[in-house]
Amino acid sequence: MNSNSLKISNENLKRRLNAERRFKFYGVIAISLALIFVLILFTNIISKGYSAFYRTLIEIKIEFNDKVQPEMFKQMSDTEINKLDLYSFSKKNIYSNFPDIEKKSDKKKIIKLFSIEFEEEIKIYINKNKNNLGNTINLYISASDDIDQIHKGNYSRDIPEERRRVSNFQLSIYDELVGQNKVKFEFNLPFFSRGDSREAELAGLGGSLIGSFFTMIIVLLLSFPFGLFGAIYLEEFSKRNRFTDFIEININNLAAVPSIVFGLLGLGILLNTFELPRSTALVGGITLSLMTLPTIIIATRASLRSVPPSIREGALAVGASKVQTVMHHVVPLALPGSITGTIIGIARALGETAPLLLIGMVAFIVDVPSSPLDPSTSLPVQAYLWNDSAERAYEEKTSAAIIILLSFLILFNLIAVFIRRKFETKW
Amino acid sequence: MGLITFFLLVLFAITSFYLGYFRSNRVRVIEKQRPFSLDKYYGYYLAIWSVVPAVIILFAILIFDGFIVKNYVLSEFYSQGIDQSEISLLFTQIENTRNGIKLFNSEDEIIVNAVNKLNYIEGIFDITSIITVFSVSGLFLLYGYRKINLNFDARLVVEKFILIGFFLCSLIAILVTVGIIFSLLYETVRFFSQVPILDFLFGTNWSPQRAFVRDASDAADIENAFGAVPLFSGTFLIAFIAMCVSIPVGLLTAIYMSEYAKSSVRNTAKPIIEILAGIPTVVYGFFAVITIAPFIRSLGGSIGLDVSSESALAAGLVMGIMIIPFVSSLSDDVISSVPQSLREGSYAMGATKSETIKKVIIPAALPGIIGSFLLAVSRAIGETMIVVMAAGLVANLTANPLEASTTITTQIVVILIGDQEFDSPKTMSAFALGLTLFVMTLILNFIALRVVKKYTEKYE
Question: Which CATH number applies to B228-458: 1.10.3720.10, 3.30.110.70, 3.40.190.10, 1.10.10.10?
């Protein structure tokens, strides 16, 4: 080999090794990109949403007078107190907390610092403490969503006043309240129990949590037994012929059908043909369980297949029938795999939104549903609805709903991983 | 009433089980010989006889009772010759009044009478149906009980029953497919009887909200309102953008994971990337609206481009992120299943690792990789929430990714969300779109699964 060709091949080698390094680098970039996406997504949503778990309250003093005496509540039942008209009483009391303000327009602005349902909150307080009310009481009522956002720092004060939702006057009052230590910032427990509301500071996840719970129970009750039994039949009992092949193709295709098509199925068959009640967790559950079924069947079949034939042969050899072999020996061994698949399927159903939009689970529902036959929404649908709302305060609500949703999904997946690790036998 | 019946049935089943169990025991004692099957099978046998017919009858009642009750209550209105739509309105009022909702005519004598009648007939219906159900199941129980003797093989019957039950469960997959096809086809056929199919497939104007038939002069409106081409173009534009993100990132990730990464990197990075596949689509939609779209807008603004607040680009990018794990995990499987001997052969010739990958492994794995792309495309086409939230709701025939454009799935949601008008071409058009979507994804999935399956078989 002369020196010239050695030089050429050396250069060639250098080029090739550089290409090698470049190629590997592309791979690293691709993976880092994917990981960065995950990171951005999570930090973005958590940083936007965590503040929704806190709420701002403002302390006010209420003085009872001749017309509204603390004694009169003692004999009243809860519903009677709820029916009372304390609006003007509450309003006047709020005004008297700000004795310096006399202009009518300013008074209106003062009221806007508080949640629009201040009367309700005062009633609830009275109801709770009706047996030991003094002549004056101090209580905390929710701040309006704008003040809440200001307090959390989500609204910038630097925006010019005419474009800001909170006027300079309101800001100065708010600062005064903060100075007097009358503003309380606490964990937003009602967020988890209240239903939806048009007022951002009062809107809660309670209704959609219960709705999702009912929906998932129905999905579990329908898709697990049917999926398990169907898979057992296909894997253990059916003979391979055209018909079972056809069933198998069907299942594989159903697993890949877009979820919205299941929504059309729910609308066309469940609502229009069978006339089941619209917007309910029942219909949502049935629709989603049809969607979950293929996942469960596929997972169960895979785990049945992994049970070694020796188990079956052993059982058959001591005289068990085919059904006994399968039910007593094969299925218990395959059950962890099946349950893992079911949990993952249910986690997917929990995050599903599109089919529920078509069967009417998107209505604005204030009441927390008490049965699967009540109109309800679900967690992801609630996030979708809040995302559609114009007010800025709903942005943090949406993120918070998503945080809760994601925590449930992570929990489900951890349980699935745990079950798989703990119970699955490797053959 | 439902709950009571349910508990009664459970109770009935348990009693029947023990009835059979003890009967078989008795037979053994009397005949001094063991019966054909184990005692518990006789128990199961009786439990099946007592519950299964009852459940079937209950379901039949559940389906028909509303109909019968309604007809009974409304029979007098029918004879008065009130027309159909008024009667059904009347019935809703009657039901609402009964459920305690006050209406303008709640005090009317007709309504009050009808409510009483409704309560009365439903009471009777409940009682008679419970009596029928349990007497029928008692009869079957008796029949089964008398059949139990020394030579009767209960296990065989029970196992046959179990098998039939399992078989029926496995049929549900077919039922669902049939249900989908039926519900889509039914409305689609009706839709195409009003709108020519060619106008739907090749028309370029989509504005279903315009299509109201008031008189004959509006007929032209219908014909021009349902051209789905803008939806197809929007769908493919967004899917294309998504694939531009997910194919390079997904494929390179898969290659790096299967060929270069140490197992420790693989074991941590892979599950994290898989997280992307498990995140609900509504989260991606929100992410697109709140973060990506404003980012693209300000980026476009800084170089003098006018980006609309809802753009195909934002939706497509985020969808691409969502699809990365589909591409990467499927391609990963395919690449890993390329036999080691091919790699070794290439190394033996002096090829570097990247040369081996580019010239040997990828060509060998190509069919499988393409299959995974096709599955990803079908995923992108069927994706709903991201585009509903981020891509825009108005049909717009454009290839500019910076403008808003709409997709098939978005229009289905837009049309069907909230209250629908029945029998309007607008509502039916959503089903036609659904069928189009179903067929498209079906074809893509079918080809992809075929390709992947054939490919994996090749190297097994």
Answer: 1.10.3720.10
